[in-house]
Design brief:
about 220 residues; alpha/beta; Rossmann fold; five-stranded parallel sheet; two-stranded antiparallel sheet; about 15% strand; binds thymidine-5'-phosphate; binds magnesium ion
Length: about 220
């Protein structure tokens, strides 16, 4: 138990392909934390409620078109407009769960063919997650799940490329921070309960807070 000496909440990101079960698992995790009386909050990117988010939403529903680089920068700006609330929540002791983050930003745009380093640049210096859970599912499994195909990127070939990019991001992020793994791959092809347990095992050491200072991504 590190409860006593902790000075901030943990920043936990959930990433994965479309229909990998991220949103359901993030909701279950939030409930589990709240049941354990751990102050926790759930965020999601894109946050479609802001002015930038509304533009992104319309693009994803194919109601509008935008240059690939322009939409990439808007996804990043959508994170930057919430960066201060992320760090204040963490510093006030709240554990923050985040459904998608900068890794999705890079994976989806690089999958379209934009240069990887160019894609990463605008997200450099964002608050760095303490842990990223990558819910890994085969694109052909995701395809069979409900709702698939409703939005712009939900095509099997695109998702296959996105998965390759996530795997690269995982390799580059898989160092340990504060003695813990920063990137954990979860087999999201399992039952909902099994995925939930794997997630809990990875998250549990962080839920009583972390002592190391909040870092910035890729600095
Ligand atoms: P959502 O289904 O989680 O709301 O995400 C919407 C889509 O946007 C999903 O296909 C992933 C994609 N995406 C990006 O292309 N770049 C980003 O930065 C983020 C956060 C999501
Ligand atoms: Mg989606």
């Amino acid at each position: 138990q590190t409860g006593q000496s902790s000075n901030r909440g943990a920043f936990i990101v959930v990433e994965g392909l479309d229909r990998s079960g991220k949103s359901s698992q993030a909701a279950r995790l939030l409930e589990r934390l709240q049941t354990a009386n751990i102050p926790a909050k759930l965020m999601k990117f894109p946050d479609r409620t802001t002015a930038i988010g509304k533009t992104i939403d319309s693009y994803l529903r194919s109601e509008s078109d935008l240059d690939d680089r322009a939409i990439h920068l808007l996804f990043s700006a959508n994170r930057w407009e919430l960066a201060t609330s992320i760090s204040s929540a963490l510093h006030s002791g709240t554990t923050l769960l985040c459904d998608r983050y900068a890794f999705s930003g890079i994976a989806f745009s690089a999958a379209k063919g934009l240069p990887y380093d160019w894609c990463r640049a605008p997200d450099i210096s964002l608050p760095a997650p303490d842990l990223t859970l990558f819910l890994d599912v085969a694109p052909e499994v995701a395809r069979e799940r409900g709702g698939y195909g409703e939005e712009r990127y939900e095509k099997e070939e695109m998702q296959r490329q996105v998965r390759v990019m996530f795997q690269r991001l995982g390799e580059e992020t898989s160092g340990s921070g504060g003695g813990r793994q920063r990137w954990v791959t979860i087999d999201a092809g399992q039952s909902i309960q099994a995925v939930e347990e794997d997630i809990w095992r990875a998250v549990e050491p962080l839920v009583h807070g972390v002592d190391n200072p909040l870092e910035r991504l890729w600095e």
